[in-house]
Design a protein that fits this description.
- By secondary structure, this protein is an alpha/beta fold.
- The chain has one domain: 3-Layer(aba) Sandwich (Undecaprenyl pyrophosphate synthetase).
- 43% of the residues lie in helices and 14% in strands.
- It is built from eight helices and six strands.
- The chain has a six-stranded parallel β-sheet, with helices on both faces.
- Helix 4 (113-125) links the parallel strand 3 and strand 4 (133-140).
- It binds farnesyl diphosphate.
- Farnesyl diphosphate is lined by residues 20-25, 38, 41-42, 45, 62, 64, 69, 83-84, 87, 136, 191, 216.
């Protein structure tokens, strides 16, 4: 039986987030430039999206460019920006064919104009699709997102629109760039690194973390299904004890 067929259809995570890591090392180990790792990683993005769609994951969030990535060599940053523009433009038709809704989180307005345009076109062209939501985190960091939410909320308090006493977790969530998405049940990080690197810190309070040794360009559909299978074998307790969780599930 394939891994996909062995998944419990009743317990598919609704939101999977991925830190796509190891492109540079993958390329360097082959004597290639780091950028070759990024271009090769695009095929893995397709695979992850296909796998998510096939097994019924509603939201797939990919960490494609962090706020911190701007400090990489200019040549690599420029290549990543070009790759983003090209990939989004090339993939729109196929996203539409597969009813995928393309969305982003992050400080998009501060990205190069060509990237903003590609994103705006992609989002607009797929906005009525009702299938899997593909969310690219671009110029994103979780601390940036929280700081941004704080700015908006503080201004509302100063303007007398809200009472600071009414600020609770649900209220804060509304001002994060992930406001419209459920928290991810599963995070996958490739390349053997075991960090969350400023990704979805608020949203990952109860997320299951799964680390694989594979470099991102080697990631395939089977690896996605394997991660979901491992997720299904975990017991999610949300701070409760095991007996309480079992009682609820019985
Ligand atoms: C991390 O590997 C990867 C990135 C910073 C960029 C991810 C981008 C892609 C997979 C391609 C573009 C994606 C889309 C959706 C168009 P790394 O460079 O940190 O690798 P290293 O840790 O081995 O140096």
């Amino acid at each position: 039986m394939s891994i996909k067929d062995s998944l419990n259809k009743e317990n598919i995570p609704s939101h999977v987030a991925i830190i796509m890591d190891g492109n540079g090392r993958w390329a360097q180990e082959r004597g290639e430039h780091r950028v070759f790792g990024h271009t090769s990683g695009v095929e893995s993005v397709r695979e992850a999206l296909k796998a998510a769609t096939e097994c019924g994951v509603d939201y797939l969030t990919l960490y494609a460019f962090s706020t911190e990535n701007w400090s990489r060599p200019k040549e690599e940053v420029d290549a990543l920006m070009n790759l983003l523009v090209e990939t989004i433009a090339n993939e729109i038709a196929e996203l539409n064919e597969n009813n995928v809704k393309f969305m982003t989180i992050g400080n998009i307005g501060s990205m190069p104009e060509s990237v903003v345009k590609a994103i705006t076109d992609g989002v607009k062209s797929t906005e009525n699709n009702t299938g899997t939501k593909l969310i690219l985190a671009l110029n994103y960091s979780a601390r940036w997102d929280v700081a941004n939410a704080m700015k908006i909320i503080t201004q509302k308090a100063i303007d007398g629109e809200i009472d600071p006493e009414s600020i609770d977790q649900e209220f804060i969530k509304q001002y994060l760039s992930t406001a419209d998405f459920p928290d991810p049940e599963l995070l996958i990080r490739t390349s053997g690194e075991m960090r969350v690197s400023n990704f979805l810190l608020w949203e990952m309070a109860y997320t299951e973390l799964l680390f694989t040794e594979k470099y991102w360009p080697d990631f395939r559909k089977e690896d996605f299904f394997q991660a979901v299978l491992e997720y299904q074998q975990r017991e999610r307790r949300f701070g409760k004890v095991s007996e309480q969780v079992k009682a609820v599930n019985e």
